[in-house]
Amino acid sequence: MIRHLLWKPEFDKTIDRFAAWWHCQVLDRPPTSVWVNPARPYAGPASSHATLRQRWLDAEFFVESAIAHLAQHDFVGDSFPVFWPNVGPEVAATMLGCDLEFSETTSWSIPIVQEPEQWQEILSRPLNFDNVYWQTVERITDLAIQRSQGRYIVGITDIHDSYDILAALRDPQNLCLDLIDCPQLIRQVSRRAADVFIECFRRQYAKVSAAGMGCSTWIRAYHEGPYYVPSCDFWCMVSPQIAREFIYPDILYEMTPLERSIFHLDGPAALRHLDLLLETPNLNGVQWVYGAGQGPAARWVDVYKRCVEAGKCVHVLAEDAADALAVLRAVGPRGLWLDVSGAFDSVEDANAFLKQIERDSCQSAKA
After folding, report:
1. C-alpha dist (Å) from residue 260 to 22, 84, 97, 130
2. How far apart are the first and last CA of the chain?
């Protein structure tokens, strides 16, 4: 298993910090991801594609430009070079027949279920892993692994879970109505979607593990075995009762191939489901995304404390260095992964901040 990278010589220390963090333990300090402004100019290809779709689906261009972007950076603290294959978060829905539309920075699905009766067609439809979108993801992944040369880790693509796949196939508001009008049919099709998630994950994990790499994702934690990010953005639209009865069983099912997991809890409306997550024995952690205009992270100290007290590690999306220190001092180092959004001007500035994190962590441990 890879523990050293040319672009991250002390990667083994980061691996060990994350290994402790998953269990709400601390080594010298919590994992702390910091970002430094690019030290080198971009030296990769420029796009000459006629459309955004052509650019997104050009695997060769994607790989070479992504590697060139990684090469610009120094990886300080517990940030590390991750090549992330990606054609957008709704790629799993393409296994069941959706097409994607592309913008500059993401993509979204074109719904294909217009009436509730069409869910029956989804139940009987074979999974299509030969579609152009998934094949692009696999081509990107294969090329990135072939060209890694010990410089970086290749992550697993963004894979939406069961009810977010259903929301991609059907307008989310209509999916809410379907939960009332044909609940048993939705139970069936949601398990079908959960199987899509599991198969997508297993295919991606097989590639990176065969290359001697552990797991990383769009949430750049690390585990040397299978790890992923359970999520359900759709459940912001439903009650705790509906979430527990319909969505939660599929979340548990989707976690069966995972050794480590951190739930992506997105937006204040999702907090109504936090207690349900905290009672989940095999869920390791929670990523609380408070959303634009709802920060800083220190505003949500009570949420982080609830998670840590329940034995769950947390991913803290701090707005800047001061915000990260405020959360650390309020919560303590146990169970925290501090991810600082604002970039530092230099490696020296970033390392000085990390020294402060280490001092504060030691003081907290002695208190």
Report:
1. 7, 19, 30, 29
2. 37
What is the pTM for the complete model shown?
0.95
Query: What Cα–Cα distance (Å) separates residue 63 from each residue in 36, 56, 107, 183?
Result: 22, 11, 18, 43
Pairwise CA distance, residues 96 & 92, whole Å:
8
**φ, ψ of residue 23 in degrees (nearest 5):** -105, 20
In angstroms, rounded to a whole number, what is the distance separating the alpha carbons of residues 67 and 69? 5
The pLDDT-based confidence of 367 (bands split at 50, 70, 90) is low
Rounded Cα distance, 333 and 365, in Å: 8
Dump pLDDT digits (tens) for 274-291. Answer: 999 999 999 999 999 999
- Which residue matches tokens 């993509």? 107
Residue spans of the domains in the chain: they are 1-38+263-367, 46-72+81-215+224-258
- Counting Cα atoms < 13 Å in the Cβ hemisphere of 248 gives 18
Q: What top-level class would CATH report for the domain 46-72+81-215+224-258?
A: alpha beta
